[in-house]
Amino acid sequence: MKKVIGLLVMFGLYGLSPAAFGVPLLLDDMSCNGGDSRAISTGDLTGNNGNPTNCFGTFSGNDPGPSGDGLMVGTMVFDFISKVDAENGSLVYSGANIGLSITGDGGLPADSGTWSYDSSLFSADAFIIVIKAANSPGFAAWLFDGSSATSDMGTWLIAWVANGDGAGCIQLSVDSSDFSCPDISHFAYMRKTQEFRNRQPLRYWASA
User: Fold this and answer.
1) CA distances from residue 72 to 80, 182, 208 in whole angstroms, order as listed
2) Looking at the whole model, is its pTM more than 0.90?
3) How far apart (Å, rounded) are the C-alpha atoms in residues 47 and 85?
């Protein structure tokens, strides 16, 4: 445990990129802007200073998370920073303590809610939000860059439908626009760089 925390602190102190130790997952082929995404849109995640400029997904299984592989959009590599898991109505945190928080509409578990984090820790730069729900489809990602990269709160919605195997959101009736969607599993925050405001190292949640 101490070794893991020590490595994470080293990344915060020296701006090293965990993604350098793995092969980032390229998101471009499943871009909303390219018309290839499956039942997600930039409107599924909102930001207080501008909504996402692109979204990607859906992807089966788990996102890279703290594995160090990272995500890639074009030539930009995004490193894992922080994650909050929604487990049995409780929130479990891992990665950096950046004040990342989610709520669920009507409580957790939920398929929609709000999100926020402490933007004072970062310079204005691109970041990605990842939402994981069911295993198939598993997760989707939303890119905030440009002016929207100053967003530090907003709303989230799981809206993806079946990925060809019966999983995903279910239409409640033939003539209804209402869907029952999988509840959130976790909500992750990733950044293009680890250039922190005032070069202050981040505090990390202890890993078991």
Assistant:
1) 12, 26, 28
2) no
3) 20
Residue whose C-alpha is closest to residue 129's, from 192, 180, 201? 192
Task: Give the pairing of strands 71-73 and 179-180.
Answer: unpaired
CA dihedral angle for residue 86, residue 172, residue 161, residue 191, rounded to 10 degrees:
-30
Which residues touch 96 (CB under 8 Å, ≥6 apart)?
Answer: 8, 12, 81, 82, 202, 203, 204, 205
Domain parsing of the chain, residue ranges: 27-64+81-193
> Are the C-beta atoms of 185 and 132 separated by less than 8 Å?
yes
Which residues lie closer than 8 Å to 206 by C-beta, 6 or more apart?
1, 5
Q: Tens of pLDDT along the chain (208 residues)?
A: 443 343 344 344 334 444 445 789 999 999 988 776 667 889 999 999 999 999 998 888 889 988 888 999 999 999 999 999 987 778 999 999 999 999 999 888 888 999 999 999 888 889 999 999 877 778 999 999 999 999 999 999 988 764 444 456 765 555 556 667 788 999 999 998 655 544 455 677 655 4
